[in-house]
Amino acid sequence: MLHIVNKSPQEKNCLDACLGVATDGAAVLLIEDAVYAATTGHPAAAKLEQAQSRLKLYVLRPDLEARGMADRLIAAVTAVDYGGFVDLAAEHTCQSWL
Amino acid sequence: MEGVVKKFMFVNRKAPYGTIYALESLEVVLISAAFDQDVSLAFLDDGVYQLKKGQQTKGIETKNFSPTYRALDGYDIEKLYVEREAMEARGLTEADLLVDVTVLSRRELGMLMDGMDVVLSF
Q: B33, B57, B86, B96: least surrounded by Cβ within 10 Å?
């Protein structure tokens, strides 16, 4: 399963809901305002670091760059471009946490 | 200056690009400047992300409106306030922001808000 989260974790609880439901081995892709979760100093970054042993964590790089956050990406999360997004979507069944 | 001058505060609480709020707020701020009003901008919660340095929107093919914040003083809009708690909760410091701001606590922002004639929320 590929879980896609697009909401800011400090505005909505989508990321927490996703991390709670996602089973071991699942992939989580952060896009749009959810990318802030994967940045240094953000409270959600610690949750992602904790989850990295059981989940595959990705972030959409163009959304990080748009927000001026590309240089703050935490090591627990892998940046992908749009091509990588398509590959992930093709490999998995997708669940979007709207 | 002619006519009645009111104290306007624009309250910005959303991150840029994910929703249209940040850009819409900026549009209305620029319109208000044309009417010679006393304008303050407050950045709370995710709104502080609007002022983050280094925004590069080529990849998402969206207009990068962040340079506009630096142009606001050209329209005599110089009162920019950032909530200290919001900045700290996101691991940001004043050095991460692309424009000079006054950093205030939530309580100080609340008192400032109380003194406004009009508060517009985005």
A: B33
Q: Is the ipTM of this complex over 0.90?
A: yes
Across the beta sheet with A27-30, the strand order is A78-80, A56-60, A27-30, A2-5, A94-97
Burial class (CB in 10 A: 0-12, 13-18, 19+), A33: buried
pLDDT of B3: 78
Q: CATH number, domain at B76?
A: 3.40.1260.10
CATH number of the domain residue A46 falls in:
3.40.1260.10
pTM of the model: 0.95
Residues of A in contact with B89 (CB under 8 A): 10, 43
The residue-averaged pLDDT of A1-16 equals 98
What is the per-residue pLDDT for A91? 97
Does residue B2 lie in a domain region?
no
